[in-house]
Amino acid sequence: MINNSRPECAFTTADFYYDLPEECIAQTPAEPRDSSRLLVLDRQSGQMGHHIFKDIVNFLKPGDVLVINDSKVIPARMYGVKEDSGIQIEVVLLKDRGLDVWETLVRPGRRCKPGTVIIFVNGILLATVTESTPEGNRLLHFEYDKSKDNFFSLLDRVGQMPLPPYITEKLKDRDRYQTVYAKERGSAAAPTAGLHFTPELLSKIEEMGVEIVRVMLHVGLGTFRPVKVDKVTEHVMHSEFISVTPEAAERINTAKKEGRRVICVGTTSCRTVESAADEQGIVQPVATETGIFIYPGYRFKVTDALITNFHLPESTLLMLVSALADRQTILNAYETAVKEGYRFFSFGDAMFIQ
């Protein structure tokens, strides 16, 4: 676990509330991906411009480094039945603990004490509850015929994409909750700022001299957990696995040394590079857990600009963007976005904070 000191914060959780009409919450993704809208925010002046996402090329310049999170969403939501009673059980995979053991969210949890066996798809996959965690999650040990299947191939048949609770429409194409550059399987939710990119747009960006650097953070469902404390600094973040290769660290460090911008695609890429950076702002190669919590008062060591979606009221992600751009500037931009009919949250429109 990377330890990050916590700066003082004068704000309460309620200071990050804004009013959002329900009709502003996007239920389906934009088609094509890069046809979503883009609000460009100058974080110094507070000035805003309204564009289409593919216009992002007009705000990038040769030498910029675009940091993307190539974690891949797994179909982490599964439905099975208790072996002894036939009662339906919902399981959401949160974290791979190794040796076919996963930390999971189980509903109804009170019916799943250690020793409970859950059956999936007529028994081709079984899970035994081995432990309850202090947070109320369950550790499940999965069993299957390893001579016929591997776990992820079974998961593709058994599982569903774990869409956030505010998306109520059925997803027609599961690849639309996946970035086009997703590679490393392990996320329980998509790094949604990356959903706006198409292969063609990425090629165009590279051709203009922008470097694209891959890092990885496996997104957990804690991303959607509300902040339940009044004092921001008392909130405890869930931990997530991150990875930065030596090559990625070197490319980011070279850009910073040469005065080139590091632009993070999404809060997950931002949290990854900020976690991996030492106090001098040098990004280190890592493969570890992070529980970094970024809120106003935080001093960014690596991130110069951010491409991100519009986040939930009173969420840790809204606090992160408010640390980069100033809380009132962000809230003003959000108020403008609501008035202008922008679409919010995972399948919604994007912001470029520069």
Topology:
Layout: E1 37-41, E2 48-52, E3 65-69, E4 71-73, E5 77-82, E6 88-98, E7 101-107, E8 117-120, E9 125-132, E10 138-143, H1 151-158, E11 184-187, H2 199-207, E12 211-217, E13 240-244, H3 246-257, E14 262-265, H4 266-276, E15 286-290, E16 305-309, H5 316-325, H6 327-339, E17 350-353
Helix pairs in contact: 5-6
Overall mean pLDDT: 95
Structural class: alpha/beta
Main sheet properties: 9 strands, mixed
Distance between the termini: 30 Å
CATH superfamily of the largest domain: QueA-like
One letter per element, helices H and strands E, the order comes to EEEEEEEEEEHEHEEHEHEEHHE
Strand content: 25-35%
CATH topology value of the largest domain = QueA-like
Q: What would you report as the Rg, rounded to the nearest angstrom? A: 21 Å
Percentage of residues assigned to helices: 10-25%
CATH architecture of the largest domain: 3-Layer(aba) Sandwich
Tally of structural domains = 2
Low-confidence region ranges: none
CATH class of the largest domain: Alpha Beta
How many H/I helices?
A: 6
Name the strands of the widest sheet in spatial order.
2-1-17-16-14-3-12-13-15
Question: Which shape, going by the Cα principal axes?
Answer: globular
Number of strands: 17
